[in-house]
Amino acid sequence: MTASVARTFTFRSGCASREDTSRGVYWSFGLDDTRPEPLLEDPPGEVRLITTSQRGRFPLRSSGTRRQNARLRQRGILRARQNVAPCTRYSRSIVGIQNHFSGVAHEYAAFRPLYPTGLFDWLAAVSRRRELVWDCACGSGQASRPLASRFAMVVASDVSPIQVATAAACGGIRYVVAPAEPAPLATGAVDLVTVAQALHWFIGEPFYAEVHRVVRPGGVFAAWTYGLPHFLSENLEQSVHRFIADFLGPYWPPEVQHVLDGYANIDLPFEEIEAPPFEMRADWTLDRFFAFVRTWSAVRRFVEKHHEDPVDHLATELESICEFDGGTQPVSWRIKLRACRKP
């Protein structure tokens, strides 16, 4: 049995996934709702869709006889396409994608700031229908969960199995291990596509072609990003911004420039909708802020090259600033939201 998550598409609800590299890949699963799933389409290659309500861990094999697959389907464990080639094309499309956050997946889930509720209220208000959302590059579900309380169903996809594994259980969400393209969704099925703090990693025609395909007429595409943190203390803000620009400067991937530009130079697939400004706010201790900084892609690249934590350098400087003094400080991030509607 191969130990490659890339060979499976897994829809799950309410359970976490685990990886055992010595025995293969195992997923805990258990879909509690029994609604039909006509909206989901098979991507290229052989796809296994877990649909059982039985709790437990099952090995997802990358190959198997038709008789074995039929037995699994009868038990409600496996649903697979027949008479298709093995999914080497599709698995390579996942394996070949650079993932900047798998190594800090648990920290990403725990320490990234939360998006404001007003953002999701606005997305729901501009959506003419609220049946299905595709939350692309969902990470650990920071946007998926608020969307699920406003739409009937959210398909949340991410290329990283580890990121998906850290997503908290929430009714109405189907988590999928998948790249941004091709999407595991039927043509013209989606009311809203969201990309939170991730469009800069895969912006381009292949992804927009999938957006054109899956979004129904009148549907909405929305992508947002946030850049530099802001503090009430000018000394704190200047120190943090110097650390970002100067100390970490050479370690930022080039795509991050789109974040700093607020996605201003990114083309949209449809006619743009004017979006209001939003802001994230938090009251954090110094240690809490450092935990957030350690989730940055540049920090990970610095550690990989130098085998030391660059946040120690920032800590030395910030701990000398009396404004923190062991307490909390308000931190804010300005959200840059770009949205458009399909004719």
Features:
alpha/beta, nine-stranded mixed beta sheet, 13 helices, elongated
Give the averaged pLDDT, no decimals. Answer: 74
Helix content: 25-40%
Strand content: 15-25%
Number of helices: 13
Low-confidence segments: 1-66, 68-98
Bulk shape: elongated
Main beta sheet: strand number and arrangement?
9 strands, mixed
Radius of gyration: 21 Å
Walk me through what this model shows.
This protein is of the alpha/beta class. It contains 13 helices and 12 strands. The strands form 2 sheets. Strands 4, 5, 6, 7, 8, 9, 10, 11 and 12 form a 9-stranded mixed beta sheet that branches. It has a 3-stranded antiparallel beta sheet with strand order 1-2-3. It is elongated and about 55 Å long. The model is unreliable at 1-66 and 68-98 (pLDDT under 50).
Short structural summary:
This protein is of the alpha/beta class and 343 residues long. Helices cover 30% and strands 22% of the residues.
Write the layout of secondary structure elements.
Layout: E1 17-20, E2 24-29, E3 56-59, H1 66-74, H2 88-95, H3 105-111, H4 117-126, E4 132-136, H5 144-148, E5 153-158, H6 161-165, E6 173-177, E7 190-196, H7 199-202, H8 205-214, E8 215-226, E9 230-231, H9 234-247, H10 256-260, E10 271-273, E11 278-285, H11 286-293, H12 297-306, H13 311-318, E12 328-341
Parallel strand pairs: 4-5, 4-7, 5-6, 7-8
Antiparallel strand pairs: 1-2, 2-3, 8-12, 9-12, 10-12, 11-12
